[in-house]
Specification:
- The chain is mainly alpha-helical.
- It has 18 helices and six strands.
- The strands form three sheets. The protein has a two-stranded antiparallel sheet with strand order 1-4. A two-stranded antiparallel ribbon has the order 2-3. The chain has a two-stranded antiparallel ribbon with strand order 5-6.
- Helix 1 packs across helix 2 and helix 4 crosses helix 10.
- The longest helix is centred in the first third of the chain and has 32 residues.
Length: about 425
């Protein structure tokens, strides 16, 4: 190996580690909120990204990790059927993506555009933020379930400190620092927690330095499978938007090559593989897309190094112990901003669609999606349970298909400021 090649690869490895650092805060947030193992989430993000790259022939510079859309469903699934059965239900989500990828391949991209136009996607994404908002507020106030585990005044000081730090870095940060607001918020919140006597680091001393993650393997029951599959519509919507976003950043049309059918297949396989080991379902990460845009690092091989770094870090036992020690109000403060941001992304999708929301057809779709999504209604038929995000997604898709009016037959591909040749 000549020195030039070695230096090039060393540079890619460093940039790849930086990409993981950008995704790290959001990556571990899902397991921290759902009780899953953070080290397992790191491991499954790594192997999921590698598998995605194989399926897409190494053409798309994206990183896959924990999907926010599954936070509320995972919590409900674990409480109702237990962790292993919930994992089995989430594996079925991956198979749903695979089926969807096959349909897209046969019917073409126009099928997914007609099925999930902006008026539906924006509404469903907004519902995700609205459904998660109460969880963030409760944690910010020191409430676990119905129990006040940390005095509210103390919890609010901690949560508002982490929120303030996150907001300041988001607005005032420069360079790579601007891409790390979650990590800065966690550090700031933990420092305040330590001064207030809430931070307990004793588990770190007991944890091993190195070892394999604590994998959990699934069991399969019909009820959780029927519950989780409809929820998959929302992350499928997110995936489509993320492919458009990375296409815009790089100046390459990934909708056509390698194609949404292939990226969706990669997402599905990565999700099933992640849940097979006890990790959360995977999705493409917008944070990393932002880092790609900032650094102009369009080489997909960089994501290989990010994935390898994630797998190596997953074997550091003390890292998982440190993450488990983060006080609940710290995460609650950050979640206020994150879940609010999801709502804004949904609203922005509706605005960018340039559709008149007061036009009767659009008004009915948006109103029904949001109200059915957050209103608390659920449908129960035997083992089949549908509510929340899953119900909102299906309502939106069905109304869009059956109501007379506009159909969507094309995709407006955004142009990058600079094309990577």
């Amino acid at each position: 190996m000549d020195q030039t090649t070695y230096c090039f690869r060393l540079k890619d490895a460093i940039i790849g580690a930086q990409m993981l650092l950008v995704a790290f805060g959001a990556l571990v947030l899902v397991p921290l909120l759902t009780g899953l193992d953070s080290n397992v989430a790191l491991f499954t993000a790594g192997i999921g990204t590698l598998l995605f790259q194989i399926i897409t022939k190494g053409q798309v510079p994206v990183f896959l990790a924990s999907s926010f859309a599954f936070i509320a469903p995972i919590n409900y699934g674990v409480q109702t059927w237990g962790l292993t059965a919930a994992l089995g239900g989430m594996i079925a989500v991956g198979f749903f993506y695979m089926l969807l990828s096959f349909v897209i391949k046969v019917r073409g991209v126009g099928f997914i555009v007609n099925l999930l136009p902006p008026i539906v996607t924006g509404s469903v994404i907004a519902v995700i933020g609205l459904i998660l908002a109460p969880t963030g507020m409760k944690m910010a106030m020191g409430i676990a379930g119905t129990e006040q585990v940390i005095p509210q005044s103390t919890a609010l000081i901690i949560s508002m400190s982490s929120l303030a730090a996150t907001v300041l870095v988001t607005i005032l940060g420069r360079g790579i620092l601007r891409l790390l607001p979650i990590i800065v918020g966690i550090v700031a919140g933990c420092i305040v927690s330590a001064f207030m006597g809430v931070l307990d680091l004793s588990p770190v001393a007991k944890a091993e330095w190195f070892g394999l993650p604590n994998f959990t393997f699934p069991t399969f029951e019909l009820a959780p499978i029927l519950y989780f599959v409809p929820v998959a519509l929302a992350p499928a919507i997110e995936h489509f938007g993320d492919v458009l976003a990375i296409s815009s950043v790089t100046g390459k049309n990934f909708i056509e090559k390698p194609g949404v059918s292939r990226t969706m297949l990669g997402d599905g396989l990565a999700t099933s593989l992640a849940c097979l080991f006890g990790g959360p379902p995977n999705t493409t990460y917008s944070e990393v897309t932002g880092a790609v845009a900032l650094t102009r690092s369009f080489n997909p091989a960089i994501m290989t190094w990010a994935a390898i770094t994630a797998i190596l870090l997953s074997c550091v036992g003390k890292l998982g112990a440190v993450l488990s020690c983060v006080p609940m109000p710290v995460m609650g403060g950050i979640m206020i901003l994150l879940f609010g941001s999801i709502l804004v992304v949904g609203l922005n999708t509706l605005v960018q669609s340039r559709e008149n929301l007061m036009e009767t057809r659009n008004l009915v779709i948006v109103a029904m999606v949001i109200i059915f999504g957050i209103g608390g209604i659920s449908v129960n038929i035997g083992d089949f349970h549908l509510g929340g995000i899953g119900l909102a997604a299906i309502i939106g898709v069905v109304l869009n298909l059956v109501l007379p009016g506009k159909k969507y037959h094309h995709i407006d591909m955004p142009h990058a400021a600079q094309k990577n040749d």
